[in-house]
């Protein structure tokens, strides 16, 4: 345990405000704790413009004090690399923050009452947008019907997305805006829509959003991320999720800054090299993200080898192994990172088969070099885990899914039965096999909450799947950078980008995942930097300042 030298307060610089958005000059941060492999007991750091210049001890900091442009007195605060949320939908996140949030609805009746109240308070909205309901936690045990949505919204166009955003309850007036929707797969005359019908109504609902409303939502999402110590977001966009205009406007807004960096993925399958031209036009890093091989467990659309425990089918497959292989081969030959959304074991096995075929055609080394991604990767067999390691596939996972829906009484157990549900999200087995993990939220599916995400991985509801807090923290910081090919970033060492956050914390610990790990690993003499106490029930750190490329993107007016 590292004893905190004094009660942490906001980090206050000696000569200027820490939220000065202009980078430049040199800054000395001192009198706290700096999480750095360069020095596990570091208490000070020097930043030169947009780069970390030095990390070390308080005594050595004295030699820098007179030569820097600013001094920030940390007063016991913790400095860490800024978090990277590796799976976000920014506009939808902002709409949930600024619009109708149904995630806290305790019952169906409560959700309908909240919807009616929101509709009454927003008479001018062209379409009523809501997000986050989850019938699995309601006493009624069922989603809203079409008639109930119509009554709550007064007959207006309305789109109310389930928590997983793979189905939605909609109003009749919204259906009327989508010709032919009743003939699409996934249409239900009274219940929520899934599959193609859901994609069509979501596109219609989002098309009704004004450019000003969209920009406000995106700003809200970026501000919210910065306030939680997040310095970078991986935006998982695509034609079935948002739109080209939506992505273009988000990247333009992020470029204006100051704010978190936005790294974009576009989820559209490629059959030939020309199909990848759109990535360049959009400014996307890769052809992946939410390129759907299947759906979600909550909406019964994740593709399984065996039927759902509470439904008479095995889910939905959107892309088969041949399509996966063709997309991967096109991307690999073009030197473009590819990726897929795959949750169920049948979907994950289709990805593995496709990667194997692509590697046979293009060469294993070329496939591994591009660090292709799989989003979610929840129901993994041991063979699939081994294949991920063999082909260098990155698993972009969301530990908050387990925190929200895991456990013997959770939604996963209801969908799959206790035995299969206990196999979900096997982070420890993936880590042991050498599968690179990167962490994210899938916001707005689960909140932007990086320390909560690290906690969820370290205290997985299935004990055998837990990883250390340190491993989870690394996957949520440096791992996100490595996923986009930036191996030098996400760590506070000289020469690294100056993306960091300052936190109000209590004591710092070196935390092992469970008692099976040798006791020495919790001893500060091991030379391992400490992290905040993430034990369930303990208060999580509070962000005081977030800095991206040397520019403060979050911080109070005076420190």
UniProtKB/TrEMBL annotation:
This is Amidohydrolase 3 domain-containing protein. One of its GO terms (molecular function) is hydrolase activity, acting on carbon-nitrogen (but not peptide) bonds. The lineage of its organism: Bacteria, Bacillati, Actinomycetota, Actinomycetes, Kitasatosporales. Residues 1-23 are annotated as: Disordered. Pfam families: Amidohydro_3. Residues 70-554 form the Amidohydrolase domain. Signal peptide: none annotated. InterPro entries: Amidohydro_3 (IPR013108), Metal-dep_hydrolase_composite (IPR011059), Metal_Hydrolase (IPR032466). It comes from Actinacidiphila guanduensis. Residues 1-16 have a biased composition (Low complexity).
